[in-house]
Structures are given as structure tokens and as C-alpha cells.
């Protein structure tokens, strides 16, 4: 952004940062915004990523005494196959929203001495790590509709091949997970600069939807291993988790194949490895975008998406050649399989809200799936290591509407859709979103985190389903998106205020000062404790966005059903078939085999229930196979135990 000399600071809000002075704009009170707020838009948090900074970790900004106009949105990061006017590689920028009239002294406190630093909410956008931008959620609306004052931040990070291009070559160059590195640079920027806006760097909540929530899960594990304190203190994960779908090593055959296809589409297959990234840095941006988009289009239907975060540890020297030595970024972003980090309790212990929508799978599954073979083939493509026994159990958990039309709950589908569609929605929703979300809450409570809350969003839209992402505009109380439906507005009142209370509370207590329905703290559904599996449901029975007239129930408490527990038990026990696609890198032979069996046995042990675990803890034997044998599981010899648990896949990393 070029230096500007707009109207002086006396007429518009401004902020002085080490990188320059930024003059923002006041958004007035209106029917959309009950309280006025100030917006500072398009502020860079890292250097331009074009040219020789393409395919490199983000670089910090130099100091500057210039003045910049911060009224307008900055460019978004390139996505898709067409370079649009608002896209640029110089896209690592952010917006800050704060209540109107804040005047900040040198220490970050309001100049009147009455108002302390304000809590901060940082939103990480979704989009499968291939799409999206920070403006997808109206966080100005979020702070305007909340009773207590707070500051919000939205930002862009690199996506698609420019942000996530896993391969052996990329790993050797130390260039993995660049989009996640962008996010970490942003979080550091907030720590260093948010006081200048009146924000409290010691009360930062990160919020993410879908890929944004997956990202948060990775940060929760990454910052447990760093020397410096984490740059956030609470988290809200909407429809996402680290154990959602596959997190592979960069040299996994899937990634290597997609990498070769990307190079072919970019006309770079002939380039020697040593010259590859210098060559890619000199290609036109449009060529990179078209190549990235062509690979995405090939894999989108099977949900085996390219350009995803990967395990980048252990590789302690990978980033040292690219980053200032003072920054603690030699720690891998994703040091291990996420499920292994959960089992090793290698994660931050912070308050969280997490949850899901009833029909998470509708946006992703094939509409034409019609036969039982279509159902099975979808999951065999997605998870090649599923056995016939696994598929038979899938048939039991999700009864086939073709074979059992009188008893299957999946008979009803939209007009023109295949007969397996509703069944696929249920199974994929559990696999990719619902059960990973519950697994995050499960492990956080096991680690002793007191304030863990789970929700389900149930108000339907479109075809009559509560789809992935439907809650986004409701949480931010975005009047443009929801204002015509009175019942949805009531749901927004509940969700926006509860999210806001979590942001404001230093301990993440969503029930402090509440006069209506309390949100029960989450207790694992596999616990014998009172309240096990309770969560808050928003919008049950509301169908206004689908053209109906029912306002439903804005908020209520419900408990997970036995069928839901069985489904999650099935997917939790098979998470190894998806994460890492079977066997960790270097896992061939006895060592890797024992690693898998031991870790998965610990996972099964967690599913046994609190009382059973307490009985086992008093015994002398710590052999997992012996424990399983005592509990009556068949075939508990080491190799058979792994087979019975569905651990051994045909793919190797």
C-alpha cells in the first residue's frame, strides 16, 4: 500500500505502529450495526510474497515513519484459475475493528483511564486451504452486536499451491505449510501491535471455521512445543479439528502424485530439482493459479484434496535458512500425526468452544450416489485401508436405504439426488467433522481443561439441511445475510452473545452473568460422569432459510444418542487409517509397527470409560495388549490386536 496523505488524524481514527501510521474510518451506527465501530483495513503484517518471496516463509515488515490510508480492503490471496482484480501475491494483510471513540495512551489503555485494554478475537478463514479470504466473516458486525467491548482481527493467508505444496522437494527446501506460517506470523503481529489499538495481548481468542478450525488445532499442538508463550489464550473451532480427514507426510504417494501433476500443468516437469523453486518463482502468477486449480478440480469430487497441511517434523533445520534466528520457528508446525499428539498430551490446555452443523457432508458428497456400491466406493477411495469388516460395520451403523427402505433413516433425499445421498451425508459428516470435533473436546477434558463447550447448529437452509458453514453469518449477526428471518435473528442473538462472552472472559466462562440457559461444560460421551455427552443445540426446528415458517427453538440442551456414540467410536478407532494413511513415515518394521499399535491401543483404552481406566491404573501390568486381553477383547497378540482394531492399512508413507 503506497503512502498517503489523507485527511488528518483529527478527522479520522488513526494508529501509530512501528511499520507506519494508519488512518482508518468510522462505520456509523445503523440498522446493521447497533454500535458504531472503527475499521482499519488492508494493514500488511508481512512482506509481499511475490517474486523472490514466492514459495518462501513470510518475512517481517521493516520499520517506517510513513502514513497510510487504511479505509480500503487490501488484496486477497490468489485462488481459483483466474486472476481477479482484487487478487495479488501482496496479500498478507489484515483488518482491525474496534469500538468507536477509543483513544489509546502509550501503554495501550484508554486515555480516560477508565477502560482497560480490550479482549481480542482473531478470525481464521476457511476454504479447504484452497479458497477464501479474511472478509468471509463480518467481524465488524460481531463486535457491534456484542454488549461488551472487544476488538476483532481478520486476515488473509496463502492458500492453494502458493501456501501448501507438499512434496519431498518442498520439504528439503524447508517450504512446507507456508499458509500456516503466515497465520503464525499474524498471531505474532497481534501480540506485538494490538496494544496500539487498545487491545489486550494477554486475552486473545482465535476463531476458525472449517480449514480455519483445522488450523487452530494445529496451532494448539505446535505452541505446546515452543519456548515462547502461545500468542493466544482461548479458541473457538467451528466445524473443524486436527483429526478431521487425512494429515499426511509430505512424501506420501498422494502428495507426490499431485505435486507432479502440478508441475506438469505449470510446464515445469523438465526442470531439475535443484532449479525447481527458482524456476517456479519466475513463472507468471496466472500460470501458477491455473496449475493449482487444475489439480484441485481433479480431486475435489473424491474429497482427496490437494494442497493441504502436512506433518513437517522432525526437521529442525528446515526453516533456519529462510527465517530470522531470533524467531522460534524451527519447531515444526505439525510435529507429528495429530492423534499421536493428542495421545501424548502434547497440546495446549486452553478453554475452547467447538461444534458442528447437523449436515456437515452435504456440500462435499456426490449428489448422484445411488447404489450400495457407490457408498462403499466413496469411502474406499477416501480411506483405501478400510477392510471388508470395516465396510460391513459401516453398513450396520448407516443402514442402506435401498436394502432396508422400511427401517433406514436415510430414505428421504432431495428430488433428483441418488438414493445413497442422505446416507453418505451422515457417514461423511461423522467421519470428517462431527466425530473429530467431539474428539477434540474429549481430549481437552481428559487433559483437565475446565471450560470446554460443544454445540450443534441445527437451523436448516437451502435443500432443508443444516449445511457446513451455515452458522457463519449467524455467529457474526450479519444482518445482510440473516435479517429477513425473525427466528434466525433470535438464534443469532444467542450465538453471537455466547461467543462474545467467551472472548471477553479471561477464563473462557461462557455462563458468567448469564440469565437464561446455561451452557453445560462438556463431559466425554464415554465417561460415566453425570452430564456425559451434553451439548448446546442452536436452532432446532428452524426452517426459515429453507422457505418455511417455523422459528424452532433458539437454544436448548441435548445429549448425544447411543447411535451417535457408536458412530464416533467406530471413526475414532480407525483414525489411523486416515491420518498418515496407515503407517507413520519411517514406520516400516517393528518400531513403526509397535508405535502404531501402542498409540492406537491407548486410544481404545481412552474409550473404555473412566471407571474401567481407574481399575486398570491400579494394576502392575502396563502392557497394552495384556490390558485389552483382560478386558475381553479377542486376539490380543500384538499383530492380531492391530488387525482387530483396523489399524493396518495397505498404504505406506
Automatic annotation (TrEMBL):
> Which InterPro entries does the entry link to?
AB_hydrolase_fold, CarbesteraseB, Carboxylesterase_B_AS, Type-B_Carboxylest/Lipase
Q: Name one GO molecular function term.
A: hydrolase activity
Give the family this protein belongs to, as stated in its UniProt record.
Belongs to the type-B carboxylesterase/lipase family.
UniProt-listed Enzyme Commission number(s): 3.1.1.-
Matching entries from Gene3D superfamilies are given as: alpha/beta hydrolase (3.40.50.1820)
* Membrane-crossing segments per the record: none
**Could you identify this protein by its name?**
Carboxylic ester hydrolase
Extent of the signal sequence: none
Q: What region holds the Carboxylesterase type B domain?
A: 13-524
Q: Which UniProt keywords apply?
A: Hydrolase
Can you name the source organism? Chaetomium thermophilum (strain DSM 1495 / CBS 144.50 / IMI 039719) (Thermochaetoides thermophila)
